[in-house]
Design brief:
About 75% of the residues lie in helices and about 0% in strands. It has about 290 residues and is mainly alpha-helical. The longest helix is centred in the C-terminal third of the chain and has 55 residues, at about 195-250.
């Protein structure tokens, strides 16, 4: 929603300002210039990215027009799930959760938290390391190192669309110049026409540069920034699970272990100690 609002503000500011200054908006409508810039950008995008990057970018684009799913409620659900799992481990032993982590979508523990369960990345991360804990063959240091490596790999993989869109935005002004140069070439070959018509051709050529810069900094570039922010938000989920499980491995009680996880969250989404405690109590009562 904010993306659409931002686009509306950019468009009204630029085109509205041009109209208020006495400009004719019809002069800015140049489909051929848009075809040159958009077509060249699409072609360069295909050339500069492999199939994996293209698929990842196309899959990421719809998420930009949705609000963040990483809310305080989601974090409280995840920490409540971790508390339930660790409490069961503390009471019944690590082997008691083997069935839960093997089939989380059928587990009574996991199905209580559908908003967390629908994120297969975080569920896979959580169950994989719980499984390593059950095996008992790795110490906390080894598991922490493995977690860090996996989080880093996930971050690099998820940042591919960010770089692809950012590079596309960076290329837009250059493609605008290409369109403008093509317009100048057309103008120069028409140098014998009346000055009034020649002025129109020059104006059309300049529109190419204008559109390239506007698309780059008003439309495409901000998408890369927003996608990067969403990536950083998603990383907090993994960090929260990581520190909570490591705290449990180091012998802390479930209530203290999830406090470790709570502390790594951003202040804007971090629930207070009392909020999280009340949420866990409510889920216990269900």
């Amino acid at each position: 929603m904010l993306v659409i609002l931002g686009y509306v503000i950019v468009s009204l500011s630029v085109f509205g300002g041009f109209a208020m200054a006495g400009g004719h908006l019809a002069a800015l409508f140049q489909p051929v210039e848009l075809l040159m810039i958009g077509g060249a950008a699409a072609g360069a995008f295909l050339v500069g990215n492999n199939s994996k990057a293209i698929k990842a970018t196309l899959a990421a684009l719809p998420t930009l027009f949705k609000g963040s799913r990483h809310t305080k409620d989601l974090y409280m659900e995840m920490m409540s799930l971790l508390f339930d799992v660790l409490s069961k481990v503390r009471k019944e032993g690590l082997m008691s959760i083997e069935g839960d982590i093997d089939t989380p979508h059928e587990s009574a523990l996991f199905t209580k938290y559908p908003s967390v369960l629908e994120d297969h990345h975080i569920i896979e991360f959580m169950t994989d390391y719980l499984r390593l804990m059950v095996s008992g063959n790795m110490d906390a240091f080894q598991i922490e190192n493995l977690m860090d490596n996996e989080i880093e790999t996930h971050h690099h993989e998820a940042s591919v669309p960010v770089h692809a869109i950012a590079k596309l935005g960076d290329a837009m002004p250059a493609f605008g110049i290409v369109a403008a140069v093509m317009g100048v070439v057309h103008t120069m070959e028409s140098v014998g026409i009346p000055p009034a018509e020649l002025g129109i051709l020059i104006a059309h050529a300049l529109v190419g540069t204008f559109l390239g810069i506007l698309l780059a900094y008003g439309f495409v570039g901000p998408l890369a920034t927003l996608l990067e922010q969403k990536l950083e938000e998603s990383a907090k989920m993994f960090q929260c699970v990581k520190v909570t499980l490591l705290a449990s491995l180091n012998g802390y009680a479930p209530a203290l272990a999830i406090e470790f996880g709570r502390k790594v969250l951003y202040s804007t989404e971090r629930p207070s100690f009392a909020e999280l405690e009340d949420h866990i109590k409510k889920n216990k009562a269900k």
